[in-house]
Fold each of these.
Amino acid sequence: MSSITLLESQKDEYSILDQWIKAKEFVYVGRGINRIDALDKVLGRSKYVEDYLVEGLTFARIVKSNIPHGILESINPGKASQHPDFITLVTSKDIPGLNQVGYYIPDQPALAEKKVRFHGEPVALVVSSKPKSAEELRELVEVVIKPIRAVFDPLEALKDEVLVHEENRSNVVLKTRVRKGDSSRALQESDYVVEGTYKTGYQDHAYLETEGALAIPSDGGMTVILPGQYPHLAQAIISRVLGVSQSKVRIIQPVIGGGFGGKDDMEPIVGAQAAIAAYKIRRPVLLTYSREDSFTSHCKRDPAIIKYRSGASRDGRLTVVDVDIIFDAGAYANRGPFTLWRATVHATGPYEVPNVDVRGMLVYTNKVYQGSFRGFGNPQIQFAAERQMDELAERIGIDPLEFRLKNILKPGSKISTNQVLEDSVGIADALIKVAERCSWADKRKAYGKIVDGKARGLGLACAWHGISTSRGVPDWCNAYLNVAKDGSITIYTGVVEMGQGTHTGLLQIAAEILGVPFEKINLIGGTSDAPDTGATHGSRGASFGGISVAIAATKIRRRVQKVASRILGCSLEDVELKDGWVYNRHKPEMRITWEEAVKRCYAEGEDMAATGYFYMPKGKFDEEKGQGFAYIVFSYMVVAVEVEIDVETGLTRVVKVWPAICAGRIINPRLATTQIHGAVLQGIGYTLTEEVKLEDGRIINPNFTDYLVPTIADLPEIEEPIFVEDLFRFGPFGAKGLAEMALIPIPAAITNAIKHALGIGPSEIPCSSEKLFLEMSKAMKKTRS
Amino acid sequence: MIEGNLLKFNYYRFTCLEDLLKFLYENPDSKLLAGGTDLIVQMRSKKIKPDKIVDISRVSELRYIEEDKDSIKIGALTTIEELKNSVIIKKWAPPLWTAVKDFATWQVRNIATIGGNICNASPAADTAPPLIVLRSKLRLRDLKGQRLVKVEEFFKGPGETIIKDGEVLTEVVIPKYEEGWRFSFIKLGKRVSHILSIVNVAVGLKRAEGKIQDIIVALGSVAPTPIRSRSVEEYLKDREATYENIDRASLEVVKDIKPISDVRASAEYRVEMSKVLVRRALRECLTS
């Protein structure tokens, strides 16, 4: 049922990956090498999108709807046209191709047409000859919108009294379902059943660099410099709105000031908006979103309402998980169908559960739309699943660690869709090690009482995260590697560097396989000039990007080995490449330099360029039955979190975090550690302080004064991560995805620690100090009465 | 005419107080720019649309911290960071020093001024409650003369003060406190640092022979202006300096505050936190 299909055409590629997964000694892989872009960033030499100054540059701003739902009656420049810097006003009428930037469901315009569906929706662009006056000009544009009744609450939206997209006749975008066993019977027959309703809010990516794109008209097409996460997707969407072929659109990657998924969704849209304007005026247009624009008009982590019932037997075995998930899509479907599917499959948490029924619903409302964000639908559901594990453990009267260990996934386990996990399941090991490291047993006994007005608590949470696309959705990667005559190497990849350090990791892989010094390789990433590598999202930059670099480099390596074996007079297998030398592994003194070997390859007719195409094996999922192949592999994460709560104010401080990750081979432990640190802090914000506040669909805190991202002063002590290297057979050197992992279990770990400290288990995040205080007061009144 | 983001205004800059006062006498509708950390934000969000911006940041004669026999004098253009680094402030204005120590971010502290923090008249201004409990006065000058007013009488409402057209806050005067006084300052925000106060409290307390001889309590962010809590003060004056009395007194604060619900906190939470913070600030004075 869950078997995967291997392709005959990919046999060589499978053997290459197999060769490197067996490698034991490394020169570059596994080393904490400094990032290649570090120095430029520190010295301020990095070029971001706003640093590209081209001749005739103009400056654009979006003009936004100030009404959450309404009929767009007219847009005209008004007084803006009298301003000396005014160049043009761009509306949907100026779009030469299709006014459609929807990701999976074609429901989203580049610029609103006929109707607006959320407060902050772009309805036009104003273009100015000066950057500052663009801001002023948009205030002068006259937009007439006739308000109509709006709907903000997804439960209210289910009544379909107000339709966000009337052509759909329903606000339900789609439904998902995973089924296994007989959950209604199991709910009746289980010794213990616990029920909870969990709510999560929006989270803004809050990247340092807001959205922007620079579109430059070129012969019959467009070159767009944009800080996106998938150059070929931006290329496709821009070509669609311009009505030109994809080959006429070129995407160039500037240095990016943070992505976290947000720029995966936004940059194709922002790039399309800039391109429409540039197409109209035949001049380069730099469109940038102000911080307020970014808050009001860019996608955010999907708010969710999760009703969760789970049961267990007296001896601590999970018997059933039964869940209803509602994801608030906001005004457009965007990535909702995929975040919701991910939440649906991951709803059990990383445990073996015999009876599962999970029903998901994605619902339109008149609010800013949801989108990709580190964890992609999974932090919401793992919060519910892992809060629920602690509640259930308490009901049974068993330690939450022991309860988890009894049910944890192992090699051979069947997940909620009945897919069998064959290998690369290291989470049990991670759980045991974290528990040891954080002195679980001692602290669980010692904490949980109030001392001098402070309560300490220790909480634990696990997470799992499917790598690559789900079900049979195709996923592939590619790279192009060229060796110049002097032996220097250039790699072209679509993988984007957005602060995570992946390009450094990719260079480590190439240097390892070719046995050349790091400095000999140049990497050009994130451009549509590279072969389509897929998006840098879903923790696939190093894992998928790395596969292609490994394959392309191995093809070159084998050609060099072939030529060298003739020169060195040994078998092909005995030719070793290391430190810039090509030599006979049994007689290392028999050697030539890498440069000499390359020269001989050129002379003897060997192709010194190679691509690294790989198609990730997929299986089948039966949507009807809700069973089948879900993901090729999962990464796993365990965190323990210690909190200290000021019981009189509710102010919660995360004191210490113990992380463990099962992401296969760690290519660069230093980069892996920094990713974990960043994710932990972003998770703390998501759980405690980051709250998007809305009034009638309008975001009332579109700034960093009142949208509270943790600062460096909020950074807890984070223990050295424990790496459980549960190698993945289709990963480069066995690597899996890593970047999203540490955020996913943080909300549950913190709230489980709060529960341990106070006996109050928050079921809603963000859980602000005020909310926690009010809950404590409520609980105290209850005990008194 | 300068064309900035969104707004057009005339910009003037002075380096000497006398010239500034002359200009303000003739142009009473001017808005003063010191550090700009509040003004620029308010202009961007279009809360205010001034026609005339007068940049006083280079009037260097208003930037000093001086000590004489009876008092401390702070020039209005002294930055928050300068207060933080001043041993005079640390010694003679301890609750003010505590407040500026955790004031905003380093970047903001380096340009924000004490005069600006006061004249902006935010109910949440962190320097106001400490200045009130230190019984500080503000020197206001115009072309015709000057006056000294108590800090607690300076504020009229959010963003509103008693300052008259043509007047400039030039100096903060903090009298040296006598032997036996203890002070404290506590703020509560939604995260550990770099945060606006949900409630802030300053306390000055003088003990003699086991009794509370004199006391002054001030709070921010719980009323349209920074306020004194007379009820707490009256409850404690001449009572035994015990924790029991303090705990009971702190509940009295609700009689003096009128908090609102806003994006930062609900009125209900602010009321509860006022009690907690007043108690803590009082206890700190007792133990320190």
Amino acid sequence: MKKTWNFLRFELKKNLWAFVVLAAVCTIPYIAQLSTMTMSYTYEEWETGEHIVRIASSQIGTVFVMLGVLCYIIPILVYSFKMSKRGVDGYYSLPLKKGKLYLAKTVLGLLLVLVPYTVAFWGGFLTLLCREGNPYAMGWYVPAYFGGVFFGICLFGINAFLFTRANKAGDGVVFMIAYIPFFWMLYAYFIQVFDLPYSYGNYEMDLFTFGGLIDFGNTISYRIMQYANRNFSPLTFVVMPSLGAIGYFLLFFNLRFEKSENAEQVSESWFGYKMLIPVYTAFLLALNSGDLLSFCMFAVAAIVATIVYRGKFKFDLKWWGMIGGALALGLFLGLMIG
Amino acid sequence: MIKIKNLTKGYEAKKDVLQNVNLEISDSCVFGLVGINGAGKSTLLRLIAGVMRAEQGQVFVDGEKVYENERKKQEIFFLPDDPFYASGVTARTLADMYRSVYDFSEETFYEYLGKFKLNEKLPIRNFSKGMKRQVFVALALAIAPKYLLLDEAFDGLDPLARLVFKRGLVKLVEEKGATVIISSHSLRELEDICDSYGILDHGSITCSGELEKDLTKLHKFQAAFEGEITKEAFGFECLSFHQTGRVVRLIARGDAEFLLEQINALKPLFVEEIAVDFEELFIGEVEARGYLQ
């Protein structure tokens, strides 16, 4: 492990400026926002004419949004070496096992996410403490911070896994974005089949890949504002942590099957276009079925996506079969909705 | 010692890059790996370096498999034809990276940076192709690995830098007992430093051995005849045959006296034997396989 630690130390030193810049980019606007925002406001109750003082948002959501954005940017910076032939030659020829190399890169990535978040978070906390007439329940900032760290680690794991399924950085970005509403879309189909109300269980936010972070941020924000009328959704601590754990496990487990020569080639992972195109085609068609126009629209979208994926206009019969199968499945799933 | 046994590797686009490669490279030598473009030289070097995994067969370095073998890879340094460096990285940063995982001689690194007159604090992206190569040459020599793998080793280097590099390699082999495998198209450069060689053709090693010994097995003759003469007129197989008017230059394998007798039987106006170089050996071999006709 000594070499891994040495390599990590080198990476940390190399990225020192990245830490400084990212921390500044997150902290300065957040502190500026907190310094100038209105912390409470008064409004007149229309029935009684009574003047009521309300606490405004503590804007803690801003720092969670920044954390979320970092969880999408940093995997690109950290793992894109495996998407270039030169990067693969450079890193895979080092006397480090792939697992150790990825461990060092993952720790680096997590630190690049969490250090700017930590600086911004506590910088914001101190800013609020310094403001006169602070109405917030500042004690909630401690669980808020650790909750952010927890969900940040989960989201980074999900995105690290999704990004590294690609053989080109652009494909990796597509995978991270395409999976955001993936589970929500399946859920939307499910509630339509069983004719449940859209807001059934208030689960919809939790099913986005970053949903847990947003739901946690919203709930903790209410607590900070001293409103007790919002609780954590039961799925907040289930969906995202589970996906994060699976992401980390598969990120390292799949290293044994990874072929370094695939760098810069078409992204053939089963977690990539191969699954996304037919699943999106089938379920979106099912959710929007009923007319010829939507069928044609999704057929064209599937063909265009396959062209982009394969990188050529002419593709084998099996890809046409995949598109045809997805459209047929979409029609069948649409019939289930009725 | 590097031992390659029945090594096979293919890509999605090209299934048969390497087919059943068998090769032994002894310790403390400079081995020249040559072949036409697309022959599989870079792939073979990547497999030896443990960057890739073979589909079949194995690469053994001192009897151990290399892929995912951290301890063995510690003794190997691979310098690809287009080495990786991140944007904004300096020679110093790269030295720090390699120092974190290899035994690294700062003294040697600065010695070669000085010889190449390179500034360690400037971003490498601002360097010319040759200067970038010089940085990596300095890094390779500072690591001084037991096995040094160089892909397109002399590409972009000026004659002076080539000389410095070749001297560095010879020193590495002599002082540290290193084994150097060089893939290059500069066969004249390879001839200066290589003890042994291997020709890779269509994914297989078609010819390998000690360079000096194999060069003496080939004979090159230049002869002039009264009229034009065909290749078939000679009573032996020509590896290479070129005719300019009445003057013929040919390369053939076999006993020099026998070959000379055969040429004299055709009553040349004059005939002389000329030394064969590595490039001619290579061209002779690949021409005999149907290329460059």
Amino acid sequence: MARMKFLCDAERCIECNACVTACKNEHEVPWGINRRRLVTLNDGKPGERSISMACMHCNDPPCAAVCPVDCFLQTADGVVLHSKDLCIGCGYCFYACPFGAPQYPRTTDFGSRGKMDKCTFCAGGPEPDGSVEEYQKYGANRLAEGKLPLCAEMCSTRALMAGDGAVLADIYQERSLRRGYGSGAPGWSTAYGRNDRGSPFAPGGPGTGGA
Amino acid sequence: MRPTILPLHALLLIALLAVQGLAAPTFAQAQLYQAPGQNSPTTKEQVPLYVPQDDKVIGRVSIPDEKLGVLVQPEGREWREWRTNTLRLAIGGLAIGMTAVLAIFFLYRGTIRIHGGKSGRLVLRFNGLDRFAHWTTAVSFLVMALTGVILTFGRPLLIPLIGHQAFTPLAEYSKSIHNFVSVPFVVGLLMIIGLWLRDNIPEKADWLWIRTAGGLFSKAGGRHPEAGRFNAGQKLVFWSIVLGGMGMTASGYLMMVPFAFTGIGGMQIIHVVHGLLAAGLIAAVIGHIYIGTIGMEGAFDAMGCGEVDENWAMEHHRRWYEEQLRKGYVEGRQPAE
């Protein structure tokens, strides 16, 4: 079984924001929510690099560990999903997430947050694949249709790649070898440096570390 | 370790530095060009994939949500440790530890009796406004403690019992109640400060009370250090509630408007402060409830009906009792003058 990952090659990203736009459009993401975003480092200085960042679907997801209602699940492909039926919008996953992936719609002027929303690796949610409820809550389920995440499919320079981690690593290393340099896969040591849990988990499963 | 002035050829070796295990990610380093050099990887295995990442990486985003400029924040790992272990240990440990200490103390001392027995004459201790302030604060504190504990311990303790579907509404209501009940808590807290602050200024006599531990361990009884309206122990509770409560209020309201005044690091610290204060206050309030109910005969009357027995007042708060006597607040006794 493939272990789905994202890899953004900072040497190739041209900050065109196509991935951001594709994601927003594909999933009808509401205003104020950014499942994917582009962060530019050393902006305007020598060594400027842009990196496209969303949920990295970590091996040992901090969001799942801190969730007070245990609403996260991980598919057999390693994709980290969550149940909006269980989420209470407490915001803890944002504090724990190393990449700032969880987003919250603002529901009142007093700052109260709605259900968390984040990148699903275009894999929908716990609802039946392709159902209307799934689309309304989590957006399109491209993975169930045999397609990869649209952000990566849209990337014109092939900086952002999505798919089986082993294949991505091979492409990236081959590419770096040919061009003569590589600067590492941003976020990989943080997201995948820890050991994989070995088994997918879901609310109530043994993998979520309690309950 | 990192050279300050980079000669041009060194710029080409950034990738090699990454292989050598520099902590900072190379994609964040200043570099003009990258081109293959003599130290370029010669095999695929030499191309680094996992670059150690120990520092926060902050860049620029073109979307309005500026806090998303933080690309990687490894501090989340410490926050996760706090949230999943330390916080539960602090709250649970202090609460259970306090209860255990009180249970042992109860076995040793039992209910502290009024030495001279009840006289039957009552002294006004807390009027209606005092009691309203106390119970407003007390009830809202207990509600917030309970809802906070549900959110903190619900996942390991309640979800296995009632299941995910039932726990989510419970957690959602707990969160709302926790937020809204903070308002009466603040009202009560301000009233308490206004009503009792002048009686809680530390004074010299408090030292004697603290040195003798308030006579808590002298079973013989009747060895109470003299005290005014509030003894040093009560003053300690007062200042814990007032200062701790203000800290909890400030940190709590900051968490209700997340990221309004600080970034992700600040929010994490605010959460830790809120949790630590909660752990301390819950333990302090357990002690306060003990001594106000089963720990001491006649103590509950002060906040229950507002009037205490004359002998209780004389034994525990002689200086205050004499004041009350002068003012004529003692039932059945004429003012001294």
Amino acid sequence: MIALRSKRTISIVSAISAALLLLAGCSSSAKNDASTAAPSVPKVAMADAVGAGEGALNIVIWAGYAENGSSDKAVDWVTPFEKATGCKVNAKVGNTSDEMVTLMKSGEYDGVSASGDATLRLIYGGDVAPVNTSLVPNYSTVSDFLKDKPWNSVAGQMYGIPHGWGANVLAYNPAKVTTPPTSWGAVFDPASPYKGAITAYDSPIYIADAALYLMKTQPDLAITDPYSLDEKQFNAAVDLLKAQKLIVGEYWSDYTKAVQSFESGNTVMGTSWQVIANLINGDKKVAVESIVPSEGATGWSDTWMISAKAKHPNCMYKWMDHIISPTANAQVAEWFGEAPSQTLSCAETSDKSFCDTYHATDAMYASQIHYWTTPTTACLDGRGNICKDYAAWTQAWTAIKG
Amino acid sequence: MHLSKSARYVLALLTSITLLFIYVPLLVVVINSFNPSKTFSWPPSSLSTLWWSKAFHNEGVISALMTSIKAGVGASVIALLLGSGLAFAVARYEFFGKETISLLVVLPIALPGIITGIALNSAFRIILQPFGVGLGLFTVIIGHATFCIVIVYNNLLARLRRVGSTLEEASGDLGADTWQTFRYVTFPTIRSSLVAGALLAFALSFDEIVVTTFTSGAEIETLPQWIFNNLFRPNQAPIVNVVAAVLIIGFALPVWLSQRLSQGAPAGGRI
Amino acid sequence: MKTFSVWLYQHRRGRLALLLTAPMLWLVVAYLGSLATMLVSAFWSVDTFTGKLVKQLTFNNFSLLFTNHVYRDIALRSIVVALLVTVIDVLLALPIALFLAKVLPIRFRNFAVVLIVLPLWSSYLVKTYAWRTMFSNSGVLAWALKPLGITPPSYGLLATTLTLAYLWLPYMILPIYAGLERIPDSLLEASGDLGASAGKTYRNIVMPILYPAVIAGSIFTFSLSLGDYIVVKIVGGKTQLFANVIYDNIGTAGNLPFAAAAAIFPIVTVLGYLFFVRRSGALENF
């Protein structure tokens, strides 16, 4: 009886799978040449005027980019915007760049604060529209070294408004880590005395951190850009991370977790963001130091982009102008702990040395940070089509975590 | 059952330990709602009502609560209609494929929520979006109703099987039509199990996050989504503990009520 | 209204159709239809750069899933965790259900059941974060166990298993309790009076009722554990489960085809389990 039953089950299952195959195959004739040609940017119309606000604005943000006073009464650049424009802001936090891309592809949002590892995917996917910078008055005083960059423009056309930038820092708890680290080697040392109390960022893009370390410590691999890795270079970085897993206590991807982990003592050292360090130090349970190690650091340079399907385009243009206005940009930069893009912001920060601390207007410093960029088969350093693309990075990340 | 005195004591002891296991984490939640730390790290350095007063002035939580209530009511009503239809059919009729219904109806809740979520999400995109219907409260209700049907179905089926159909037949023999029989005979006997099923369906919908994530879109936020979003914003995270503490207390009454109502339904049907 | 009612009275098939049409449309067309739509995409791929679906028949997703041992390891780990959670819950649920159904005076039972159900309705996320607090190095467990010289498990697989067992425990207690409550004491006494040994009573009376109840509970504990990706992110340290593979591909990487292919593993596992337990009548038991 059981045998009979399972036989029937098997026949049902195979019938269903046959039907599925048929369905899947039906549309196979559609497009064949998509992947072979060099990617071209889909044509998306650009706005030529900004009219009255539509009353609402749905945006995807990094946590802390749209504060409305609910976290801290004094920290509020959304309410003034809502009052001035009548656009009610509805902000959705994306925890990783991948999540932001997925959210933007849903077509439900008007805009996003995208990092460099998301921007190109959105541009080439036709999910965002080019930005008419003449409709954003505050754009003229944005730091020049952030304009027309590979991660925010294509062929001289800006696809967004630079928001701010920063480095992924090495944070450590000096009470536990007695010799201050100066190199990323501290989080890759298999014999680390802090085994089990190291943390790392839970995203495929973290492979670039390993590549950056290898770039400086193993010259024979000849890595020139941590986001352009050929087979051999890529495997070396992945192996380094697999070895690192043995000393990692936990991976983090949201910052409540990162803060708690340091505060409870589960983590004493690892890659972090300045804002996390600020929160920990603000809580006064433990103190952490944050440094940019000798190898330099990976980092982000964020860009406000407008969706190709924005339901509230006027509100989004108004928002893009508001968020880089000197006051708002100073507020968000101080709250998040990053360098503001607006040069005039430096006069508006509550801590007058803020821009110096973050090297906000220092083009030299900015050039030493390897900003998150989407890895593609076409190497970004011009070696041809021999590099691992982001899909390979994603699958490798699953394999690293095991 | 003949349980020796010592067996009874052992059982009582084990029960107390399990109850402790169940309630200690909830106690941690309540204590943490008085923790002034921005990330509720343990142990609290002091106690304060800071987050309680912040929670009561938080607009986001109120509107999320309203959204959750709407979604829960919508899903329960649909589940009530569909689930009772199925239960009547299975309890009172013979038809082809009857024995696969119990499997079919349990599937949406037995398959991991992420699968139901992805499946509905891709279907909504393909079928609804061409008509200009975006993701929103409507799609959340559809998603929740799908896995709530089984709750109403099982509750009612157990009741129908227990009471049998003799009373209904008698009513028919005495000249009552279908509507009268339902109104005066069937309905009074099943009313309490319908209420219990609906309440439980509501509660299940109220705490659902995974299916909701994939069916809600940008415009709406249910309470669990609000909690999820705010847990990852350190400056808001402690308010979440306050909301959770309030929820535990707020739910005591409806849960007790549904327990009272479903009493006597021998097949349990409580969840 | 009246004529329709009369018509219904006369047409048994009509009544049945009225009852069945809407729910069957919903479950078969809408739900199974969506599942099929999703499964079709498992044979497609996604343009890695633009994230657009490429609707061409391919088996790459499956070959990757089957050839890379990582996915097999994660799948096995997930099944072990789901089974462990189920076993822990059965062990915890049996005594408490027995106590409630057979020892506790009837007037206290409602209250006791409410005590057990109540935690289900406080937020799942908040409870998970409470466990994160409990397991942390300076947490409640470390603090409570320190005098005994025991170091509690840190974030990892064990913490994940315990947290999942905690979350789904009420789903196991309730059906077992309902099953036990259904056995009248008189039946057990009669069995004893007629000369059956305790073992025989257990085998012939208690087991046939307990078995489907445990199965009903296990459907929840097993499949909820198999589908969870949030708990392991919060208390799992550096480990991951199969639902994470699905979520990471759809929720973050936007790779629906690969996620759909991966989803076939839990679908087959759960379906297999349901087929296996269907004969016990457990599907109508919760």
